[in-house]
């Protein structure tokens, strides 16, 4: 489940199903990229070329109720809930 946010419509939740092989190690960022590329290109989340180094912290979000970096947190359960890291939401999972 991804908590989405749009300035015009407000908050709403959206569910996505992402196929992951049983032994694959994927990050939350991998899931978001799959969603964006294959299911919904309107999903907003922070990503850039230097991601996966946990250097900037801009891909931070609440992942299953805990704050973490989507480029580093492993997607290791069947259901993942994603929410913005704070209430200064620009759009979807992107915050100031």
Distance between the termini: 22 Å
CATH architectural grouping: Roll
- Following the backbone from N to C, one meets helices and strands in this order, namely EEHEEEEE
Tally of separate domains = 1
Give start-end ranges of low-pLDDT stretches.
none
Per CATH, the class reads Alpha Beta
Main beta sheet strand tally, sense and closure: 3 strands, antiparallel
Number of DSSP-assigned strands: 7
The amount of beta strand, in percent, is 25-35%
What number is the mean pLDDT? 89
Helix/strand-derived category reads: alpha+beta
Shape: globular
CATH topology: Ubiquitin-like (UB roll)
Going by CATH, what is the homologous superfamily?
Beta-grasp domain
Q: Helical segment tally?
A: 1
Q: Could you characterize what this model shows?
A:
By secondary structure, this protein is of the alpha+beta class. It has one domain: Ubiquitin-like (UB roll), CATH 3.10.20. The protein is built from 1 helix and 7 strands, in the order ββαβββββ. The strands form 3 sheets. It has a 3-stranded antiparallel β-sheet, with no helix packed on it. Strand 1 and strand 2 form a beta hairpin. The radius of gyration is 13 Å and the shape is globular.
Task: Write the SSE topology.
Blueprint: E1 2-6, E2 10-14, H1 28-39, E3 60-63, E4 66-69, E5 82-84, E6 89-91, E7 94-95
Antiparallel strand pairs: 1-2, 3-4, 3-5, 6-7
Cofactor: [3Fe-4S] cluster; [2Fe-2S] cluster
GO molecular function: electron transfer activity; iron-sulfur cluster binding
Pfam family, one: Fer2_3
